[in-house]
Fold:
Amino acid sequence: MARFLVRRALSIVISIVGATVVIFILTTLGPDPRVLYIGDAQVELTQEQIAEIERHLGLDKPLPLRYLNWVWNLVRLDMGQSLGTLRPVSDIIAQHLPMTLRLAAGAWVFAVLVGVSIGVLAAVKRATAWDYIGRIFALFGQALPQFWTGVMAILLFAVWLRWFPPGWSGGPEDGTFPLSWGNIKFYVLPCIVLGWPASAGIMRLTRSAMLEILDSEYIKLARAKGIGPVTIIFKHALRNAVIPPLTSAFVLLADYLNGALVIEIIFSMPGIGTVALNQAVYDNDWPLLAGTVFCFIGIYVSFAFLADIAYAIIDPRIRYE
Structure:
């Protein structure tokens, strides 16, 4: 186990280093940072002023040294300064990340609880109405695009029924206000719309794993010994069937934390995904874009590592040698 964790940690380091190289090369091949920094200023700059801008942006140094300086700044959580707002990139990410964290956490809880519950019910009630309902739930969840389900959810629950607000319309942009129903209601529709496709996938994984486990010999032996159905389902079957959904759920959470761009745009939520698109991509703000992409990569590899650890904890039979 220890050797496996060391190997996985080394692979994560290699992945992050490779990602920094790719990000740096892509930002170098992009538009001229001096033009982006100057913007639409209608003034003629002298050579001394241009040289000062190059020194400020670090463009007066050789390319390898610029990369090493950038990596060293990343290690110190210094991602540079946004060209559009002239604010530190780390401050912009820290301001908008809490909203994405809450959106991701709510969607993840919905996806896991609903997906596992319906998957277990569909497997136990195989070939019944409950099984068909669960399969229809999974079919529509994986087939319908999120931008359509988001608009339909707003139309049904916000416009017609008026149960929930149609989008983000209150509180500070970073979403750090205290949790209450008046604030949680802004997250209900986005979390359900974001979590539905993932819950459909988890439901299918849980159902397939449960069907395989329920047909195994030791489950038949447990039934023959007179063990109750609840104990068989939750203690013997679900514990062994939960491994594939668990791995999918951890990777899923990493995807959610990387910013649910479509959902944030539909519900007007200023999360990290919206910031990456509106401020970084549209404005050619390469320091902000590089910082958000590096943040996304770090989150993804970290949760993939946690998924491997949880894999071994849940099933002690798994050994990484």
Q: What stands out?
A: The two ends are 7 Å apart (CA to CA).
